Amino acid sequence: MVKLMNSNEDIRSGIDWIFVVRELQRHFAPFATLRDLRPIAARVTPRRFKAGDVLFKEGEVGDSLFVLRSGGVALSRKQGTEQILVAEIRSGHLVGEMALMGDPVRRETATTTVAADAIEIKRKEFLELA
What we know:
Layout lengths: L1 H6 L1 H19 L6 H10 L1 E5 L4 E3 L7 E7 L1 E8 L2 E9 L3 E2 L13 E4 L3 E7 H7 L1
Antiparallel strand pairs: 1-8, 2-7, 3-6, 3-8, 4-5, 4-7
């Protein structure tokens, strides 16, 4: 399957689209139809990160969340001069959702622990799903 995805862009984008729609249904709109989710799925952004990349930093104003497709993310907070590990997020989970559900200021820094794929959902799309 991986060889097929890597050799044919149409197949890869079709699989990516189905993944996006399923994740939107799973996390936000379980009773929505494919027709309902198609316009939103077209506007979310697939993102790829290398190990050690920062998704967002503590203190930034957040306007999006991430659905982690693969890989892992470490959430850490600054305490004095040290970064303290708060949580480790695995694939299939949300990262950064609190910035869209309350205080938009990021409380942690999110750093990939290994290479990761994610879907970035901006505030507008999040509100449509909610």
